[in-house]
Design brief:
The structure holds two protein chains of two kinds. Chain A is α+β, with helices and mostly antiparallel strands. Chain A is 16% helix and 30% strand. Chain A has two helices and ten strands; from the N terminus they run ααββββββββββ. In chain A, strand 3 (92-106) and strand 4 (112-116) form a beta hairpin. The radius of gyration of chain A is 30 Å and the shape is elongated.
Chain lengths: 189, 632
């Protein structure tokens, strides 16, 4: 569309002058019609932040893990377990599905130490290294001792300890909470 | 500072010249409203791209998630209803604007040399927009879109030579499924918009090259595009936006029930702008030549002639022919559309189907919003397991040839019969009870006090007429001559002042025996009623009679297989358990025995369907806020 190819009647001409008001009005309406759909669309996109009635992750309460204290290794070696609970994902409801992993350790006192298996650094899955007797995240080499204390400066905090509850029959229940990663303190999601 | 920066930018990009070319385009004869159409189309497309992107970010194309995600957008997400409403109505307005733009271009002769190529580009753009409409209509995966699009893809399949192959490619298989949605979505949000942008760029570039087709260049002094013409176009876009917003806010985009290939959808119609071709295909004179003739060849020929407009215009009288052709076409399209709408509005069955579609759509959204949310198998599972949805359909199929539901077949249609010779349509008379209020107080009162009238429909049956002719009326269910008819027939005593309390209590008790949770009952009255039924507390002529004289088990628990000893077992009469037993085998000794005339439904109705039918009849289903128009 170079000017050289324009038709002869498209030569320069002197358009009539219009008042500032006409220019302003034209510009205003033009911007308005363009911006309105963008605003509505943008607000819709903000749904996860603004939807009314959307609760912060509700406390799941204590969830039974289906095992007893006796079944954990007596020497305190950590054991990984899936946490099973009902899950809601947008419009779907999933009854009794795995929602996350925990590491459990049987302490000498008979108590159970439970960790969320999600790395507090950036959310990878923390594993247990038999050779080193420690927890180790393969993503960015976060490492923790068996009590969950960090042993290098990669993770911003120790592993997230979860509340446990053991009934008279020794069955273990935990309060499964996910925390924000990358923070030096535990902030529930 | 800023001017320096702009100069720097201009030196690097040359934007000033581009901008000045765009804004100071010459408008011969002055700015006019009639030039706005192209701009409104570009604007609606812009709106579609914006809203489309955001909908895309929430849409999930698969047979088990498409409806569900659209439901979630529509009913749960913040402003989702508005964004979807805008997208829905802007799409329709785009079709209207496209029609106006085409007509205006033809009438003003803007398609003539040297603008032929631009005209053809416009026609290509039109096909792309129609393609976007068609693909977009299916994406919600609701009954409406599903069945309407089936027609379109089957038309593709009717195309000569490679039709079936093309159909399979488009559908991603021989039938609809996940891949139909992924393919339609890839076309709708990927290929077609990209093509549209590409052709639009050419269209606008060629338009700029040849300038505006002035209707009357001497009308007024020339002006520049900015601000005179831009103002008009901006105002026009504002009007378009206002109309779209009003429709989105006050009419809203519909979402019918989730697509279910096993559930018929009598309300199926294409979107309104395809109604003309839809109606055209219903002419037998057209259809006898095959689907491809009316749906592909004829529209193809019409498009072909429109494509040739610039060449036809070269001949003398050509332009006049084109304008006339365009006018006739517009009138034909409008005429067929109106005809189709008129016929539908006068077709009671179609109206009933629309009511039902509306009811189903509401119900689906209501169930999806329930505490159980949507199962992984999709919302269609909710509908298939819902007595409120399935009950009326099963009733219409299995029961409505004899029974009615408040006068209709359960789904809102009258049961009619067409005389083969006179072609006269008559309403088929009832041959069994109308079950619309089954188990309610009215029903119980009618059975007790008005047995003759309540079951008079039996008189319309052939078995009754035969028995009457043979004089065997003692051996059949007889609303007029039977022990129950006699007892109920003693109206003087039954309805007397002295028995009024007894009667009310009995009715209350009978209703309580149904075990239904939707009835408001007075427990004291129920207890009194139990006494009336079992010991008989009647005064006057009925003194000494009790229901249990004949119906010995009344008041007991229901027991399957009990022998009624010649009388129907009405323990827990009207409850789900009783109904199931009765419907399964009405001729068993527990029910009507040898006198029974109703078909045995054991083995004829599946367990699931029987359950759904019975639960619907006793109103045992998740509460409905949907107005049950068919129930009244």
């Amino acid at each position: 569309m170079s000017p050289h190819h324009r038709t002869p009647d498209d030569d320069e001409f002197d358009p009539p002058r219009r008042s500032f008001f006409v220019h302003l009005l034209t510009a205003t309406i033009s911007v308005l019609v363009g911006v309105v759909p963008l605003i509505f669309g943008g607000l819709f996109f903000l749904d996860p932040l603004v939807r009314s009635g959307r609760k912060k992750r509700d406390a799941t309460g204590f969830l039974r893990l289906g095992i007893t204290v006796d079944s954990l290794p007596a020497d305190g070696t950590p054991m990984k377990l899936k946490v099973v609970a009902d899950k809601v994902d947008a419009w779907n409801f999933y009854p009794n599905v795995p929602i996350g992993n925990v590491w459990l350790r049987r302490m000498e006192s008979g108590e159970v130490l439970a960790f969320n298996a999600t790395c507090p650094h950036l959310g990878c899955a923390v594993g247990y290294r038999d050779s080193e007797h420690d927890f180790y995240c393969p993503c960015h080499t976060s490492a923790f001792d068996v009590d969950g204390n960090r042993t290098n400066d990669i993770p911003p905090r120790d592993m997230d300890i979860l509340e446990t509850d053991i009934d008279d029959d020794g069955r273990i229940a935990i309060e499964f909470i996910a925390y924000r990663t990358g923070e030096s303190t535990k902030i529930p999601l | 500072m800023i001017p320096d920066l702009l100069d720097w930018l201009d030196h690097r990009t040359g934007y000033k010249e581009v901008l000045s070319d765009a804004l100071y385009e010459r408008v011969p004869g002055g700015a006019r409203w009639r030039y706005i159409w192209g701009s409104t189309l570009v604007f609606t497309f812009f709106v579609q791209v914006i809203t489309g992107f955001f909908l895309w970010a929430a849409y999930c194309p698969s047979a088990q998630t498409a409806w569900e995600s659209v439901y979630f957008i529509q009913e749960v997400m913040f402003l989702g209803w508005l964004v979807r409403g805008i997208h829905h109505y802007a799409a329709q307005l785009m079709i209207v604007l496209m029609g106006v733009h085409l007509i205006q271009v033809v009438v003003d002769g803007a398609y003539r040399a040297p603008r032929e190529i631009n005209f053809w580009l416009g026609l290509i753009l039109m096909q792309i927009v129609l393609g976007l409409s068609l693909t977009g209509y299916l994406l919600p995966w609701d009954q409406k879109g599903y069945y309407a699009t089936q027609v379109a893809t089957n038309i593709v399949g009717s195309a000569p030579v490679v039709g079936p192959q093309v159909q399979q490619l488009v559908q991603g298989g021989t039938s609809y499924g996940h891949h139909t949605l992924t393919r339609f979505f890839a076309l709708h949000a990927g290929l077609l918009p990209v093509l549209l942008v590409g052709f639009l760029v050419l269209h606008v570039a060629f338009f700029r090259r040849h300038g505006l087709t002035a209707r009357d260049p001497e009308r007024a002094p020339d002006v520049s595009f900015w601000p005179d013409q831009v103002l008009r176009e901006a105002v026009a876009c504002l009007v378009v936006l206002a109309v779209v917003l009003l429709l989105a806010i006050f009419a809203g985009a519909d979402l019918s029930a989730p697509a279910d290939p096993t559930e018929d959808y009598a309300a199926a119609r294409p979107e309104w702008y395809f109604l003309s071709i839809f109606r055209f295909l219903k002419f037998e004179a057209i259809e006898q030549f095959g689907v491809a003739f009316g749906a592909i060849y004829i529209p193809g020929i019409i498009m072909g002639i429109i494509t040739l407009f610039p060449l036809i215009a070269l001949m003398s009288g050509g332009h006049r022919f084109n304008v006339i052709f365009m006018s006739v076409l517009a009138v034909a399209i409008a005429g067929l559309t109106v005809l189709s709408l008129y016929e539908d509005s006068n077709n009671p069955d179609h109206q009933a189907a629309l009511t039902e579609a509306d009811r189903d759509g509401h119900r689906a959204r209501e169930l999806a919003a329930g505490p159980e949310k949507i199962p992984i198998g999709g919302a269609v599972q909710l509908m298939r397991a819902d007595p409120f949805t399935r009950g009326p359909r099963i009733f219409a199929e299995q029961c409505a040839s004899c029974h009615r539901y408040n006068g209709h077949n359960g789904r809102g249609s009258l049961v009619t019969l067409k005389d083969r010779e006179t072609e006269e349509i008559t309403v088929v008379p009832l041959t069994a009870a109308d079950l619309g209020n089954f188990g309610s107080k009215d029903w119980m009162r009618a059975v007790v006090c008005d047995y003759q009238e309540h079951f008079k429909a039996w008189r319309n049956t052939q078995w009754f007429k035969n028995a009457e002719a043979d004089g065997d009326t003692d051996e059949i269910l007889n609303p007029e001559a039977s022990e129950m008819a006699d007892w109920s027939g003693d109206q003087q005593s039954l309805l007397s002042e002295e028995n009024s309390d007894n009667l009310n209590a009995l009715i209350e008790f009978l209703v309580s025996e149904t075990g239904r949770s939707d009835m408001q009952l007075d427990s004291e009255l129920v207890a009194t009623g139990r006494k009336v039924a079992t010991t008989g507390s009647w005064l006057g002529a009925l003194e000494g009679t009790a229901c249990t004289d004949c119906h010995a088990s009344l008041g007991d628990e229901y027991e399957e297989g009990r022998d009624g000893d010649g009388y129907p077992d009405i323990a827990k009469y009207g409850s789900a358990m009783w109904l199931k037993s009765f419907i399964s085998n009405p001729g068993s000794p527990q029910h009507y025995g040898d006198k029974n005339q109703m078909p045995t439904f054991e083995g004829r109705l599946s367990e699931d369907d029987l359950e759904l039918l019975v639960r619907w009849m006793v109103k045992d289903y998740p509460p409905n806020e949907v107005e049950d128009k068919q129930g009244s």
